[in-house]
# Entry
Amino acid sequence: MAYIALYRKWRPALFEDVVEQEHVVRTLKNSVTSERIAHAYLFCGTRGTGKTTTAHIFSRAINCLNPNDGDPCNQCEVCRDILSGSILDVIEIDAASNNSVDNVREIRDEVVYAPSRAKFKVYIIDEVHMLSSGAFNALLKTLEEPPPHVVFILATTEPHKLPPTILSRCQRFDFRRITVDSIAKRLDMISGSNGVVLSQEAARLIARLSDGALRDAISILDQCIATGKDEISYEDVLSVVGIVKDTFISDMVSAIADNDIGRILKMVDMLVMDGKDITQFVSDMVLYYRNLLICKISLKPEEIIEASKETIELMKELGGRFSQESIMSIIKELSAIESSLKWATHPRVLLEMVLVKICESEANVSFEGILARLAELERKISSGEFAVKQDVNHTAKKETLPKKETPSSQEDQAPHKEKKGKSNLANVKSIEQWAEVLNDLKGNGRMALYTSLMDAKAVQLDHKFIGIIFKGGSSFNKMMVCKIENMEALESAASRVLGREVKFKCLDEDSFEDGAVGGKAAEKDELLEKAQDIAKRLNTPLNIIDE
# Structure
Protein backbone atom coordinates (compact mmCIF):
# COMPACT_ATOMS: atom_id res chain seq x y z
CA MET A 1 0.00 0.00 0.00
CA ALA A 2 1.29 3.45 -0.93
CA TYR A 3 2.49 5.65 1.91
CA ILE A 4 0.01 8.33 2.99
CA ALA A 5 1.44 11.61 4.25
CA LEU A 6 0.72 12.31 7.90
CA TYR A 7 -1.27 15.48 7.24
CA ARG A 8 -3.63 13.44 5.04
CA LYS A 9 -3.75 10.46 7.39
CA TRP A 10 -4.58 12.65 10.38
CA ARG A 11 -7.07 14.92 8.63
CA PRO A 12 -10.05 15.37 11.03
CA ALA A 13 -13.10 13.23 10.25
CA LEU A 14 -15.45 14.89 12.77
CA PHE A 15 -16.13 18.47 13.77
CA GLU A 16 -14.77 17.82 17.28
CA ASP A 17 -11.38 16.88 15.79
CA VAL A 18 -10.94 20.30 14.16
CA VAL A 19 -8.38 22.17 16.26
CA GLU A 20 -9.25 25.56 17.77
CA GLN A 21 -12.11 26.52 15.45
CA GLU A 22 -14.93 26.10 17.98
CA HIS A 23 -16.73 29.27 16.83
CA VAL A 24 -17.06 27.79 13.34
CA VAL A 25 -17.78 24.22 14.38
CA ARG A 26 -20.52 25.19 16.83
CA THR A 27 -22.45 27.18 14.22
CA LEU A 28 -22.14 24.54 11.51
CA LYS A 29 -23.27 21.73 13.83
CA ASN A 30 -26.31 23.75 14.88
CA SER A 31 -27.11 24.32 11.21
CA VAL A 32 -27.09 20.56 10.62
CA THR A 33 -29.18 19.67 13.67
CA SER A 34 -31.74 22.41 12.99
CA GLU A 35 -31.69 21.71 9.23
CA ARG A 36 -31.08 25.38 8.50
CA ILE A 37 -28.68 24.85 5.61
CA ALA A 38 -27.69 28.01 3.72
CA HIS A 39 -27.03 27.94 -0.01
CA ALA A 40 -23.52 29.49 0.19
CA TYR A 41 -20.72 29.54 2.78
CA LEU A 42 -17.38 31.34 2.75
CA PHE A 43 -14.50 29.84 4.73
CA CYS A 44 -11.55 32.23 4.97
CA GLY A 45 -8.29 32.21 6.91
CA THR A 46 -4.58 31.50 6.60
CA ARG A 47 -3.26 28.23 5.21
CA GLY A 48 -3.42 25.06 7.28
CA THR A 49 -6.18 26.20 9.63
CA GLY A 50 -8.81 23.65 8.52
CA LYS A 51 -10.94 25.40 5.88
CA THR A 52 -11.05 22.59 3.31
CA THR A 53 -11.18 19.90 5.98
CA THR A 54 -14.20 21.56 7.60
CA ALA A 55 -15.86 21.86 4.19
CA HIS A 56 -15.45 18.11 3.67
CA ILE A 57 -16.89 17.30 7.11
CA PHE A 58 -19.81 19.67 6.52
CA SER A 59 -20.53 18.14 3.09
CA ARG A 60 -20.83 14.71 4.73
CA ALA A 61 -22.81 16.01 7.72
CA ILE A 62 -25.60 17.54 5.61
CA ASN A 63 -25.85 14.37 3.50
CA CYS A 64 -25.34 11.76 6.26
CA LEU A 65 -28.10 9.19 6.68
CA ASN A 66 -27.42 8.88 10.44
CA PRO A 67 -25.99 12.18 11.72
CA ASN A 68 -24.87 12.25 15.35
CA ASP A 69 -25.40 15.65 17.03
CA GLY A 70 -24.45 17.48 13.83
CA ASP A 71 -21.47 15.20 13.07
CA PRO A 72 -21.42 12.76 10.16
CA CYS A 73 -21.44 9.10 11.14
CA ASN A 74 -18.78 8.26 8.51
CA GLN A 75 -20.27 4.74 8.42
CA CYS A 76 -23.34 5.03 6.20
CA GLU A 77 -23.20 4.42 2.48
CA VAL A 78 -23.22 8.11 1.55
CA CYS A 79 -20.47 9.05 4.03
CA ARG A 80 -18.24 6.19 2.85
CA ASP A 81 -18.72 7.12 -0.80
CA ILE A 82 -17.93 10.78 -0.11
CA LEU A 83 -14.79 9.76 1.81
CA SER A 84 -13.66 7.51 -1.04
CA GLY A 85 -14.52 10.12 -3.67
CA SER A 86 -16.73 7.74 -5.62
CA ILE A 87 -19.87 9.87 -5.36
CA LEU A 88 -20.53 12.61 -7.91
CA ASP A 89 -22.70 14.76 -5.66
CA VAL A 90 -19.75 16.37 -3.82
CA ILE A 91 -17.49 18.19 -6.27
CA GLU A 92 -14.22 19.85 -5.22
CA ILE A 93 -12.83 22.44 -7.64
CA ASP A 94 -9.43 24.13 -7.54
CA ALA A 95 -10.08 27.70 -8.68
CA ALA A 96 -6.36 28.29 -9.22
CA SER A 97 -6.40 25.98 -12.26
CA ASN A 98 -10.10 26.26 -13.17
CA ASN A 99 -10.61 30.01 -13.10
CA SER A 100 -12.09 30.78 -16.50
CA VAL A 101 -15.62 31.75 -17.45
CA ASP A 102 -16.11 28.40 -19.22
CA ASN A 103 -15.35 26.48 -16.01
CA VAL A 104 -18.00 28.41 -14.09
CA ARG A 105 -20.49 28.02 -16.94
CA GLU A 106 -20.12 24.25 -16.62
CA ILE A 107 -21.09 24.55 -12.95
CA ARG A 108 -24.02 26.78 -13.83
CA ASP A 109 -25.28 24.23 -16.37
CA GLU A 110 -24.90 21.29 -13.95
CA VAL A 111 -26.60 22.74 -10.85
CA VAL A 112 -30.04 22.34 -12.38
CA TYR A 113 -29.74 18.55 -12.12
CA ALA A 114 -30.75 16.92 -8.84
CA PRO A 115 -28.14 14.95 -6.84
CA SER A 116 -27.91 11.30 -7.81
CA ARG A 117 -27.67 9.73 -4.34
CA ALA A 118 -27.13 12.43 -1.73
CA LYS A 119 -29.57 14.97 -0.35
CA PHE A 120 -27.48 17.98 -1.43
CA LYS A 121 -25.14 18.56 -4.33
CA VAL A 122 -22.13 20.33 -2.77
CA TYR A 123 -19.58 22.41 -4.68
CA ILE A 124 -16.36 23.10 -2.75
CA ILE A 125 -14.40 25.80 -4.58
CA ASP A 126 -10.91 26.12 -3.10
CA GLU A 127 -8.82 29.31 -3.51
CA VAL A 128 -11.90 31.01 -4.92
CA HIS A 129 -10.13 34.40 -5.04
CA MET A 130 -8.23 33.08 -8.08
CA LEU A 131 -11.34 33.23 -10.28
CA SER A 132 -11.26 35.82 -13.03
CA SER A 133 -13.64 38.79 -13.10
CA GLY A 134 -15.66 37.15 -15.83
CA ALA A 135 -15.89 33.93 -13.85
CA PHE A 136 -17.15 35.82 -10.77
CA ASN A 137 -19.81 37.48 -12.90
CA ALA A 138 -20.86 34.11 -14.30
CA LEU A 139 -21.04 32.65 -10.78
CA LEU A 140 -23.00 35.55 -9.32
CA LYS A 141 -26.48 34.69 -10.58
CA THR A 142 -26.13 31.03 -9.68
CA LEU A 143 -24.86 31.92 -6.23
CA GLU A 144 -27.72 34.35 -5.69
CA GLU A 145 -30.56 31.98 -6.56
CA PRO A 146 -29.31 28.39 -6.68
CA PRO A 147 -31.66 25.40 -6.76
CA PRO A 148 -32.67 24.21 -3.25
CA HIS A 149 -30.58 21.05 -3.57
CA VAL A 150 -27.26 22.90 -4.15
CA VAL A 151 -24.79 24.17 -1.52
CA PHE A 152 -21.68 26.20 -2.36
CA ILE A 153 -18.68 26.25 0.00
CA LEU A 154 -16.05 28.80 -1.03
CA ALA A 155 -12.60 28.64 0.62
CA THR A 156 -9.95 31.34 0.35
CA THR A 157 -6.89 32.76 2.06
CA GLU A 158 -7.55 36.23 0.63
CA PRO A 159 -11.21 37.20 1.10
CA HIS A 160 -10.46 40.87 0.35
CA LYS A 161 -10.00 39.90 -3.31
CA LEU A 162 -13.60 38.70 -3.63
CA PRO A 163 -16.16 41.11 -5.10
CA PRO A 164 -18.63 42.56 -2.56
CA THR A 165 -21.48 41.05 -4.59
CA ILE A 166 -20.10 37.56 -3.85
CA LEU A 167 -19.33 38.28 -0.18
CA SER A 168 -22.86 39.55 0.49
CA ARG A 169 -24.39 36.30 -0.69
CA CYS A 170 -22.39 34.01 1.60
CA GLN A 171 -22.33 33.14 5.28
CA ARG A 172 -18.77 34.03 6.23
CA PHE A 173 -16.64 32.06 8.72
CA ASP A 174 -13.14 33.27 9.65
CA PHE A 175 -10.70 30.55 10.68
CA ARG A 176 -8.16 31.63 13.30
CA ARG A 177 -4.47 30.83 13.43
CA ILE A 178 -3.85 27.86 15.70
CA THR A 179 -1.90 28.54 18.88
CA VAL A 180 1.49 27.01 19.65
CA ASP A 181 0.09 25.07 22.60
CA SER A 182 -2.66 23.42 20.54
CA ILE A 183 -0.31 22.53 17.70
CA ALA A 184 2.27 21.08 20.10
CA LYS A 185 -0.42 18.98 21.79
CA ARG A 186 -1.61 17.62 18.45
CA LEU A 187 1.96 16.83 17.35
CA ASP A 188 2.60 14.93 20.57
CA MET A 189 -0.49 12.79 19.96
CA ILE A 190 0.46 12.05 16.34
CA SER A 191 4.08 11.19 17.16
CA GLY A 192 2.99 8.91 20.01
CA SER A 193 0.63 7.05 17.67
CA ASN A 194 3.59 6.47 15.33
CA GLY A 195 5.79 5.08 18.12
CA VAL A 196 8.04 8.15 18.22
CA VAL A 197 8.91 10.20 21.30
CA LEU A 198 8.80 13.95 20.55
CA SER A 199 10.40 16.18 23.16
CA GLN A 200 8.42 19.15 24.41
CA GLU A 201 11.05 21.61 23.14
CA ALA A 202 10.97 20.00 19.70
CA ALA A 203 7.17 20.08 19.54
CA ARG A 204 7.03 23.77 20.47
CA LEU A 205 9.78 24.60 17.97
CA ILE A 206 7.83 22.90 15.17
CA ALA A 207 4.69 24.72 16.30
CA ARG A 208 6.46 28.10 16.17
CA LEU A 209 7.91 27.37 12.73
CA SER A 210 4.48 26.47 11.34
CA ASP A 211 3.19 30.00 12.06
CA GLY A 212 -0.29 28.87 13.11
CA ALA A 213 -0.74 26.31 10.31
CA LEU A 214 -1.31 22.80 11.67
CA ARG A 215 -0.80 21.19 8.26
CA ASP A 216 2.67 22.74 7.98
CA ALA A 217 3.52 21.52 11.48
CA ILE A 218 2.47 17.94 10.69
CA SER A 219 4.52 18.04 7.47
CA ILE A 220 7.64 19.05 9.45
CA LEU A 221 6.94 16.25 11.95
CA ASP A 222 6.58 13.79 9.07
CA GLN A 223 9.99 14.88 7.78
CA CYS A 224 11.53 14.45 11.25
CA ILE A 225 10.05 10.96 11.66
CA ALA A 226 11.50 10.04 8.24
CA THR A 227 15.00 10.32 9.75
CA GLY A 228 14.32 6.97 11.43
CA LYS A 229 14.93 8.08 15.00
CA ASP A 230 12.75 6.82 17.84
CA GLU A 231 13.25 10.07 19.75
CA ILE A 232 13.13 13.50 18.15
CA SER A 233 14.97 16.26 19.99
CA TYR A 234 15.18 20.03 19.58
CA GLU A 235 18.50 19.66 17.70
CA ASP A 236 16.95 17.10 15.33
CA VAL A 237 14.29 19.58 14.28
CA LEU A 238 16.93 22.29 13.76
CA SER A 239 18.90 19.93 11.55
CA VAL A 240 15.89 18.92 9.47
CA VAL A 241 14.53 22.40 8.76
CA GLY A 242 17.96 24.03 8.34
CA ILE A 243 17.70 26.77 10.93
CA VAL A 244 20.06 27.86 13.70
CA LYS A 245 19.66 27.75 17.47
CA ASP A 246 18.25 30.70 19.36
CA THR A 247 21.61 30.93 21.13
CA PHE A 248 23.33 31.50 17.79
CA ILE A 249 20.95 34.35 16.98
CA SER A 250 21.39 35.90 20.42
CA ASP A 251 25.18 35.69 20.00
CA MET A 252 24.87 37.43 16.63
CA VAL A 253 22.71 40.18 18.16
CA SER A 254 25.26 40.58 20.94
CA ALA A 255 28.06 40.95 18.38
CA ILE A 256 26.02 43.61 16.56
CA ALA A 257 25.52 45.47 19.82
CA ASP A 258 29.31 45.37 20.37
CA ASN A 259 29.97 46.47 16.75
CA ASP A 260 32.31 43.47 16.52
CA ILE A 261 32.45 43.09 12.74
CA GLY A 262 35.16 40.43 12.84
CA ARG A 263 33.07 38.22 15.10
CA ILE A 264 29.98 38.79 12.94
CA LEU A 265 31.76 37.75 9.73
CA LYS A 266 33.10 34.64 11.47
CA MET A 267 29.58 33.69 12.55
CA VAL A 268 28.28 34.19 9.00
CA ASP A 269 31.02 31.84 7.81
CA MET A 270 29.89 29.23 10.37
CA LEU A 271 26.30 29.70 9.17
CA VAL A 272 27.25 29.05 5.54
CA MET A 273 29.62 26.15 6.24
CA ASP A 274 26.92 24.39 8.30
CA GLY A 275 24.61 24.58 5.28
CA LYS A 276 21.98 26.71 6.96
CA ASP A 277 19.41 28.65 4.95
CA ILE A 278 20.48 32.31 4.87
CA THR A 279 17.00 33.52 3.98
CA GLN A 280 15.52 31.65 6.94
CA PHE A 281 18.26 33.05 9.19
CA VAL A 282 17.42 36.63 8.19
CA SER A 283 13.73 35.90 8.82
CA ASP A 284 14.61 34.55 12.27
CA MET A 285 16.71 37.64 12.96
CA VAL A 286 13.76 39.90 12.09
CA LEU A 287 11.53 37.99 14.50
CA TYR A 288 14.21 38.10 17.21
CA TYR A 289 14.56 41.89 16.93
CA ARG A 290 10.78 42.11 16.98
CA ASN A 291 10.88 40.27 20.30
CA LEU A 292 13.56 42.67 21.57
CA LEU A 293 11.28 45.57 20.66
CA ILE A 294 8.36 43.99 22.53
CA CYS A 295 10.61 43.48 25.58
CA LYS A 296 11.37 47.21 25.55
CA ILE A 297 7.83 48.54 25.11
CA SER A 298 5.69 45.92 26.87
CA LEU A 299 5.35 45.54 30.63
CA LYS A 300 4.54 41.84 30.25
CA PRO A 301 6.39 40.57 27.14
CA GLU A 302 5.92 36.95 28.24
CA GLU A 303 2.23 37.29 27.34
CA ILE A 304 3.14 38.12 23.74
CA ILE A 305 6.41 36.32 23.07
CA GLU A 306 6.39 32.54 22.78
CA ALA A 307 9.61 31.69 24.62
CA SER A 308 10.91 30.39 27.93
CA LYS A 309 11.40 32.64 30.94
CA GLU A 310 15.19 32.43 30.61
CA THR A 311 15.06 33.37 26.93
CA ILE A 312 12.86 36.39 27.63
CA GLU A 313 15.25 37.55 30.37
CA LEU A 314 18.12 37.34 27.87
CA MET A 315 16.06 39.32 25.35
CA LYS A 316 15.43 42.02 27.94
CA GLU A 317 19.16 42.23 28.62
CA LEU A 318 20.03 42.44 24.91
CA GLY A 319 17.21 44.91 24.25
CA GLY A 320 18.69 47.24 26.86
CA ARG A 321 21.79 47.60 24.68
CA PHE A 322 19.79 49.11 21.82
CA SER A 323 17.54 52.12 21.57
CA GLN A 324 14.00 51.63 20.34
CA GLU A 325 14.86 53.57 17.18
CA SER A 326 17.91 51.35 16.58
CA ILE A 327 15.85 48.16 16.80
CA MET A 328 13.24 49.48 14.35
CA SER A 329 15.99 50.61 11.98
CA ILE A 330 17.64 47.16 12.09
CA ILE A 331 14.30 45.44 11.46
CA LYS A 332 13.82 47.70 8.45
CA GLU A 333 17.29 46.90 7.09
CA LEU A 334 16.91 43.14 7.50
CA SER A 335 13.38 43.09 6.08
CA ALA A 336 14.58 45.00 3.02
CA ILE A 337 16.98 42.22 2.00
CA GLU A 338 14.76 39.31 3.05
CA SER A 339 12.93 39.17 -0.28
CA SER A 340 16.08 39.97 -2.28
CA LEU A 341 17.95 36.97 -0.88
CA LYS A 342 15.67 34.53 -2.72
CA TRP A 343 16.98 35.78 -6.07
CA ALA A 344 20.51 36.81 -5.07
CA THR A 345 23.43 35.04 -6.76
CA HIS A 346 25.60 35.58 -3.67
CA PRO A 347 23.28 35.72 -0.64
CA ARG A 348 26.24 35.49 1.74
CA VAL A 349 27.72 38.71 0.40
CA LEU A 350 24.38 40.45 0.70
CA LEU A 351 24.00 39.32 4.32
CA GLU A 352 27.55 40.37 5.23
CA MET A 353 27.03 43.75 3.61
CA VAL A 354 23.84 44.55 5.53
CA LEU A 355 25.30 43.38 8.86
CA VAL A 356 28.36 45.60 8.40
CA LYS A 357 26.08 48.47 7.43
CA ILE A 358 24.02 47.97 10.58
CA CYS A 359 27.15 48.03 12.73
CA GLU A 360 28.43 51.23 11.14
CA SER A 361 25.07 52.95 11.16
CA GLU A 362 24.60 55.80 13.57
CA ALA A 363 21.32 54.15 14.61
CA ASN A 364 23.28 51.56 16.55
CA VAL A 365 26.03 53.60 18.20
CA SER A 366 26.34 55.81 21.28
CA PHE A 367 23.04 54.81 22.79
CA GLU A 368 24.02 56.25 26.15
CA GLY A 369 24.92 59.56 24.53
CA ILE A 370 21.61 59.78 22.67
CA LEU A 371 19.72 58.87 25.82
CA ALA A 372 21.51 61.58 27.77
CA ARG A 373 20.77 64.18 25.10
CA LEU A 374 17.10 63.25 25.02
CA ALA A 375 16.93 63.49 28.80
CA GLU A 376 18.56 66.93 28.66
CA LEU A 377 16.12 67.99 25.96
CA GLU A 378 13.11 66.89 28.04
CA ARG A 379 14.50 68.82 31.01
CA LYS A 380 14.97 71.99 28.95
CA ILE A 381 11.52 71.78 27.38
CA SER A 382 9.76 71.16 30.70
CA SER A 383 11.61 73.99 32.44
CA GLY A 384 11.38 76.42 29.52
CA GLU A 385 15.14 76.86 29.66
CA PHE A 386 15.61 76.32 25.94
CA ALA A 387 13.72 79.46 24.83
CA VAL A 388 15.14 81.59 27.67
CA LYS A 389 18.66 80.46 26.92
CA GLN A 390 18.46 81.73 23.35
CA ASP A 391 17.34 85.17 24.51
CA VAL A 392 19.95 85.32 27.25
CA ASN A 393 22.77 84.38 24.91
CA HIS A 394 21.56 86.87 22.34
CA THR A 395 21.45 89.64 24.93
CA ALA A 396 24.78 88.63 26.38
CA LYS A 397 26.43 88.81 23.01
CA LYS A 398 25.04 92.26 22.45
CA GLU A 399 26.24 93.43 25.87
CA THR A 400 29.72 91.99 25.50
CA LEU A 401 30.40 93.46 22.06
CA PRO A 402 33.40 95.80 22.30
CA LYS A 403 32.75 99.48 21.80
CA LYS A 404 33.93 101.05 18.58
CA GLU A 405 37.37 102.42 19.29
CA THR A 406 40.37 103.42 17.32
CA PRO A 407 42.36 100.27 16.80
CA SER A 408 45.62 100.19 18.67
CA SER A 409 48.86 98.91 17.31
CA GLN A 410 48.34 95.62 19.17
CA GLU A 411 44.92 95.14 17.63
CA ASP A 412 46.40 95.73 14.19
CA GLN A 413 48.72 92.83 14.85
CA ALA A 414 45.82 90.40 15.59
CA PRO A 415 45.41 87.49 13.18
CA HIS A 416 43.50 88.42 10.04
CA LYS A 417 41.52 85.16 10.25
CA GLU A 418 39.85 86.18 13.52
CA LYS A 419 38.72 89.56 12.18
CA LYS A 420 37.36 88.00 9.01
CA GLY A 421 35.48 85.36 11.00
CA LYS A 422 33.79 87.97 13.17
CA SER A 423 32.68 89.98 10.18
CA ASN A 424 31.25 86.87 8.48
CA LEU A 425 29.08 85.95 11.47
CA ALA A 426 28.00 89.55 11.92
CA ASN A 427 27.03 90.11 8.30
CA VAL A 428 24.87 87.04 7.72
CA LYS A 429 21.14 87.24 8.28
CA SER A 430 19.66 84.78 10.78
CA ILE A 431 16.39 83.01 10.06
CA GLU A 432 13.84 84.59 12.38
CA GLN A 433 11.39 81.68 12.11
CA TRP A 434 14.04 79.04 12.94
CA ALA A 435 12.41 78.28 16.30
CA GLU A 436 9.09 77.72 14.47
CA VAL A 437 10.80 75.29 12.08
CA LEU A 438 12.18 73.33 15.05
CA ASN A 439 8.76 73.27 16.71
CA ASP A 440 7.25 71.95 13.47
CA LEU A 441 9.76 69.08 13.47
CA LYS A 442 9.03 68.32 17.11
CA GLY A 443 5.27 68.40 16.50
CA ASN A 444 5.65 65.87 13.69
CA GLY A 445 7.58 63.41 15.85
CA ARG A 446 11.06 64.08 14.42
CA MET A 447 12.67 64.23 17.85
CA ALA A 448 16.07 62.85 16.78
CA LEU A 449 16.36 65.50 14.07
CA TYR A 450 15.05 68.16 16.47
CA THR A 451 17.69 67.41 19.10
CA SER A 452 20.46 67.40 16.47
CA LEU A 453 19.48 70.96 15.45
CA MET A 454 19.06 72.42 18.95
CA ASP A 455 22.51 74.02 19.14
CA ALA A 456 22.81 74.89 15.44
CA LYS A 457 22.26 78.32 13.85
CA ALA A 458 20.34 78.93 10.65
CA VAL A 459 21.48 81.77 8.36
CA GLN A 460 20.39 82.96 4.93
CA LEU A 461 23.11 82.23 2.37
CA ASP A 462 21.18 83.49 -0.68
CA HIS A 463 17.61 83.73 -1.93
CA LYS A 464 17.25 79.94 -1.98
CA PHE A 465 19.81 78.34 0.33
CA ILE A 466 19.82 78.38 4.13
CA GLY A 467 23.00 77.43 5.94
CA ILE A 468 22.94 75.36 9.14
CA ILE A 469 26.01 76.32 11.16
CA PHE A 470 27.22 73.61 13.54
CA LYS A 471 29.56 74.37 16.42
CA GLY A 472 32.85 72.56 16.85
CA GLY A 473 32.45 69.06 18.24
CA SER A 474 29.00 68.62 16.65
CA SER A 475 30.07 66.23 13.90
CA PHE A 476 27.53 63.61 15.04
CA ASN A 477 24.70 66.15 14.85
CA LYS A 478 25.84 67.25 11.40
CA MET A 479 25.99 63.62 10.23
CA MET A 480 22.44 63.01 11.49
CA VAL A 481 21.02 66.09 9.76
CA CYS A 482 22.82 65.36 6.47
CA LYS A 483 20.98 62.05 6.01
CA ILE A 484 18.72 62.26 2.97
CA GLU A 485 15.49 61.50 4.84
CA ASN A 486 16.33 64.07 7.54
CA MET A 487 17.18 66.78 4.99
CA GLU A 488 13.89 66.12 3.21
CA ALA A 489 11.97 66.40 6.49
CA LEU A 490 13.81 69.62 7.39
CA GLU A 491 13.20 71.21 3.98
CA SER A 492 9.54 70.22 4.13
CA ALA A 493 9.12 71.76 7.60
CA ALA A 494 10.94 74.97 6.59
CA SER A 495 8.85 75.32 3.45
CA ARG A 496 5.68 75.07 5.52
CA VAL A 497 6.83 77.68 8.01
CA LEU A 498 8.47 80.12 5.57
CA GLY A 499 5.88 79.73 2.84
CA ARG A 500 8.48 79.18 0.12
CA GLU A 501 10.69 76.40 -1.17
CA VAL A 502 14.14 76.36 0.40
CA LYS A 503 17.27 74.19 0.40
CA PHE A 504 19.74 73.63 3.22
CA LYS A 505 23.52 73.33 3.42
CA CYS A 506 25.23 71.89 6.51
CA LEU A 507 28.34 73.91 7.43
CA ASP A 508 30.96 73.87 10.17
CA GLU A 509 31.34 77.05 12.21
CA ASP A 510 35.11 77.13 11.66
CA SER A 511 34.95 76.82 7.89
CA PHE A 512 32.16 79.40 7.76
CA GLU A 513 34.23 81.88 9.77
CA ASP A 514 37.24 81.29 7.52
CA GLY A 515 35.20 82.64 4.63
CA ALA A 516 35.91 79.55 2.56
CA VAL A 517 32.24 78.67 2.35
CA GLY A 518 31.20 82.06 1.12
CA GLY A 519 33.95 82.19 -1.49
CA LYS A 520 33.17 78.72 -2.83
CA ALA A 521 29.46 79.48 -2.88
CA ALA A 522 30.05 82.69 -4.86
CA GLU A 523 32.26 80.89 -7.35
CA LYS A 524 29.68 78.11 -7.66
CA ASP A 525 26.81 80.56 -8.24
CA GLU A 526 28.81 82.37 -10.89
CA LEU A 527 29.60 79.09 -12.64
CA LEU A 528 25.93 78.04 -12.55
CA GLU A 529 24.85 81.37 -14.02
CA LYS A 530 27.32 80.96 -16.89
CA ALA A 531 26.15 77.38 -17.53
CA GLN A 532 22.51 78.47 -17.53
CA ASP A 533 23.27 81.34 -19.90
CA ILE A 534 25.06 79.01 -22.35
CA ALA A 535 22.22 76.47 -22.19
CA LYS A 536 19.70 79.24 -22.86
CA ARG A 537 21.60 80.45 -25.93
CA LEU A 538 21.86 76.91 -27.30
CA ASN A 539 18.19 76.22 -26.46
CA THR A 540 19.31 73.07 -24.59
CA PRO A 541 17.76 71.82 -21.32
CA LEU A 542 20.12 71.95 -18.35
CA ASN A 543 19.73 69.56 -15.41
CA ILE A 544 21.70 70.70 -12.35
CA ILE A 545 22.21 68.21 -9.54
CA ASP A 546 23.40 69.90 -6.37
CA GLU A 547 25.11 67.58 -3.90
